[in-house]
Design brief:
The complex is a heterodimer of chains A (about 110) and B (about 110). Chain A has about 110 residues and is an all-beta fold. Chain A has strands spanning about 5, 10-15, 20-25, 30-40, 45-50, 55, 60-65, 70-75, 85-95, 100-105, 105-110. In chain A, the strands form 2 sheets. In chain A, strands 2, 4, 5, 9, 10 and 11 form a 6-stranded mixed beta sheet that branches. In chain A, strands 1-3-8-7-6 form a 5-stranded antiparallel beta sheet, with no helix packed on it. The N and C termini of chain A lie far apart (about 35 Å). Helix content of chain B is about 0%, strand content about 50%. Chain B is globular. The chains are: A mainly beta (about 110), B mainly beta (about 110). The interface between A and B is medium-sized, with 25 and 27 residues.
Chain lengths: ~110, ~110
């Protein structure tokens, strides 16, 4: 079982739709959480950090449930430009006082005109 | 843009050769992490450098090694290349003291034939 699990999709949604992605993580020592966006053959770009209180940035809302070890991303009013792979990332203690990022395999989103 | 740069952008090597990839971190960041991303997978943590020393390592063999320089730039060296080393190699810079967001360079696409 992978430490960070995501549904790989693809999610094909019409423009204007609301879409939600979920992610679960298995290590309860995980400290911080992020969503990254990755376009085809490009580097991951930070979309947003995820906090227990939930946070919103425009059309994007992220939620963290530490008890269930679950992270979500909601995209409202989808745009064609939202088409990308969305990577769930967990930052946890590794060893020797360091932390490391653990990535999910990503969820592919395609927004259709 | 993140300010993280990598070189070269593409590289083709043959099995058994050695390769060096380079990364310049974002201004103000003192930590560099390296990742390997195979097609269709999320990035996998190789190692992290802080204060010119390896500061955490993932499940990669010793033929993957690195350096960090006083200006925080870094190199990834891979010896005895194998076909499975073909991947996108990403470096990410961050600050050891937080926040823990990592910012990625554009990556080096390595093909081993």
């Amino acid at each position: 079982r992978k430490e960070v699990e995501q549904d790989p999709g693809p999610f094909n949604v019409p423009e204007g739709a609301t879409v939600a992605f979920n992610c679960t993580y298995s290590n309860s020592a995980s400290q911080s959480f992020f969503w990254y966006r990755q376009d085809c053959r490009k580097e991951p770009k930070l979309l947003m950090s995820v906090y227990s209180s939930g946070n919103e940035d425009g059309r994007f809302t992220a939620q963290l449930n530490r008890a269930s070890q679950y992270i979500s991303l909601l995209i409202r009013d989808s745009k064609l430009s939202d088409s990308a792979t969305y990577l769930c990332v967990v930052n946890r203690y590794h060893d020797s006082g360091t932390y490391k990022y653990i990535f999910g395999t990503g969820t592919r989103l395609k927004v259709l005109a | 843009e993140t300010g993280v740069t990598q070189s070269p952008t593409h590289l083709i090597k043959t099995r058994g050769q050695q390769v060096t990839l380079r990364c310049s971190s974002q201004s103000g960041h003192n930590t560099v992490s390296w990742y390997q991303q195979a097609l269709g997978q999320g990035p996998q943590f190789i190692f992290q450098y802080y204060r010119e020393e390896e500061n955490g390592r993932g499940n990669f063999p010793p033929r993957f090694s690195g350096l960090q320089f006083p200006n925080y730039s870094s190199e990834l060296n891979v010896n005895a290349l194998e076909l499975d080393d073909s991947a996108l190699y990403l470096c990410a810079s961050s600050s050891i003291s937080g926040p823990y967001e990592q910012y990625f360079g554009p990556g080096t696409r390595l093909t081993v034939t």
